[in-house]
Amino acid sequence: MRLEGVRRVFENQRAVIEGLDLSIDSGEFLAVLGPSGCGKSTLLRMIARLSPPDAGRIVTDPGDFQTAFVFQDAHLLPWRNVLDNAALPLELMGAGREERRAKARILLNQVGLSEAESRYPSQLSGGMRMRVSLARALITEPRLLLMDEPFAALDEITRFHLEVQLRDLWMRRGMTVIFVTHSISEAAFLANRAIVLARRGGKIRLDRPVELPSERTNELRSDPRMGREMNLLMGAMEEE
Description:
six-stranded mixed β-sheet, alpha/beta, 2 domains, three-stranded antiparallel β-sheet, Rossmann fold
């Protein structure tokens, strides 16, 4: 995927993204960091084709491919149980009841919710609801997974567990992930590449590979290498 000279202007005529160029390789886990209001979510929505750029273009590989979007709120349907919430995308695509439920059970098992499939959203913790949202996003086997601060509202321990789980799923599936976050530690732990957007104009202030082992566990969080990556990202975040 390539973004070439992409520009996005809000109604007050303020350019949130201005002349942005970015290439994203297939199978990459890219973290997008930056201060509030710098255009992170706007950039993600343009990549998802939910919001068109005012100038420039977004070029993808030839052919159609499945994209999934995970928001900060799980957006589960309260009248459907966990299994049927996870199976919803396949239902909308016309898959039969047994087929979609069988695939949903596989995904729920992968995110550690196989014993909760008959529960309803009101019976779930915030972390469990986010796991259902992730299973729902993965059920169509997307080649591109877009995530907009999905763990921001969770407590730290729950977030740590979900980060490990997401990283493992990415390594097994080989999909491309673009993950918007305001958390420096989250970006360093999850991504194999991180970009930092400037406070104004959506320019890329830093673009670097995250030099950490492929296998990442919670023990890595206290590793000096993790601290080094976080310091580099923080330095770019603090620049004006």
